[in-house]
């Protein structure tokens, strides 16, 4: 602390701390700099504040979408600022001079120079653009309130959900919502019925959780939707809670739970390089990490690891030249050699090793190397040859199989998705179980979310296009089903709309599949307004049959919903998928338009009352539809959609960068003049003058996939030409809204927007 000495009329006055206070005001504020990490610049911001006589600070990592991370220690003395974040092993020490902090950033054993300059802390994007909450509420009020079901009925989270048994069947875990819409994790002892809240959800959402062993649970959280997931663990009695991966700007993926090693699991992280992931064995009690393999070639990174049930790394797939994939396999357990050289378009995926076989190199694989549709084979990885083709379908890709660990890894079933999900039983045991479930619940889809290790308790989930979902427990010894939980008992099945599979021909003769959800008025012969809803992705993603809260909400207001699995969608074979490459915004959009024409020709919908709505790629399709065919749609809702393919390519997360060549093969390559011209053609931001119908834009500020600048660009451009564009931005969300209150606000505003811009004469019953 400095001392200032002043003389007044011979008297000495000591002003302790006055100069320090001046420096304190200088040091308070936002300090921005860039770390150079292996050739990549990572922006960091420290936000320093004073509370009384003490300093506090938070840290932002804008490139990772992380904001407001509280620091543990903040001091300023002798012109030196020191900030510590103990859990992440982070420290910054900088000397203040000339309004600059010059110092060193420490993380673990690493030391990196970091100079910080004072800046003005701002929220992401242009904060002058979003529509006020009051004006969004006025928009929502266009939707009448005299419906039997409210928006909350469809989009309020179930009171309880995400049920699972502990491996030994002693406990049942689940999430339960409180009065503040926080979804905490509870554990119920199935014999004593004692209930314990083991994980409290606070500001950040619990993005997922599960059992690591009989007495410990794991869960993951990120910061405000930035998708940098951290791993946490807690005991069943709420004790020994620990953040296992406290590393800022690092994303965790769970690769393998280890049934045979209950204190460990296999994860991957991009800790050493933001662009690539490496595997670690982590102790779920202590957090101790052991790196299992190095992924050091950022230009040709490993993009998939194959571990067996004991945690041994048996093989991996490695990207080569950005578009090819080499499959490495260790025949002796130690030395990895290339077994297959594949294109990234090829499918050859190990589902599981065949632990029922004496041959340790025998595995179940999904492959399309010899067929258009993926098929399941029994394969010898050492000899690199097919042992036996096990299952295929002529029309659809085969997706998975089921094995029973309890019965010596017996093969139980195959599954694939056609118009609906199909399960094909194999073992005698599962044939009986399948028959029992389908007899009990005819016409419904079922899945088995969980089963105890000894198969004495099954968790059965039942769903249909009209049923949100119910959980049953099943005791095979007693042959007894018990209703465990109805997720949405307020939504009566008979009041819900039917989702119909449809098939039609595109304008160039391709067979296209999809779904139409029709309100009662359409079934009565009226032509109703329709919401055209292209899916996200777009590659490899598809719409599916089942309960869709959006489609049901729309139907309750008298709107049909059209979902088209346009070319590039997954599940229909390689040729169909690849026919959509370089066709995003072009023939893929043609398919959507042809689907709309199909349902118009069927007499179901009013051709003058079609809206288009979608998220991510679907949001892009909205913007593209309003510019490509400006007279086709009456209005559009763009939800976290791409508006500019050039900036989309530039702003993707670091861990997407190794796959840029693949992304360019799917979308477009700006380095090819012909394709650059197409990018200009299909980037909606360059064709704003063609948009003449109302548009509602929705964005999460922390979105790491579709940067907020994408939405800002379209809003600014449209407003510049005098168009009134409602713009909803949530600053605590990422790629899609995860918080219940935000989702409900979105759908209320959306329904008001539709009510305002779609002609609607269908009358709805009053709420009971």
TrEMBL record:
The record places domain Peptidase S9 prolyl oligopeptidase catalytic at 545-760
* Keyword flag Hydrolase: yes
Coiled-coil region(s) at which residues?
none
Q: Where is the signal peptide?
A: 1-24
InterPro entries for this protein = 6-blade_b-propeller_TolB-like, AB_hydrolase_fold, Peptidase_S9_cat
Task: List keywords of the entry alphabetically.
Answer: Hydrolase, Signal
Q: Which PANTHER family match?
A: DIPEPTIDYL PEPTIDASE FAMILY MEMBER 6 (PTHR42776:SF27), SERINE PEPTIDASE S9 FAMILY MEMBER (PTHR42776)
- Protein's name in the database: S9 family peptidase
Record organism: Hwangdonia seohaensis
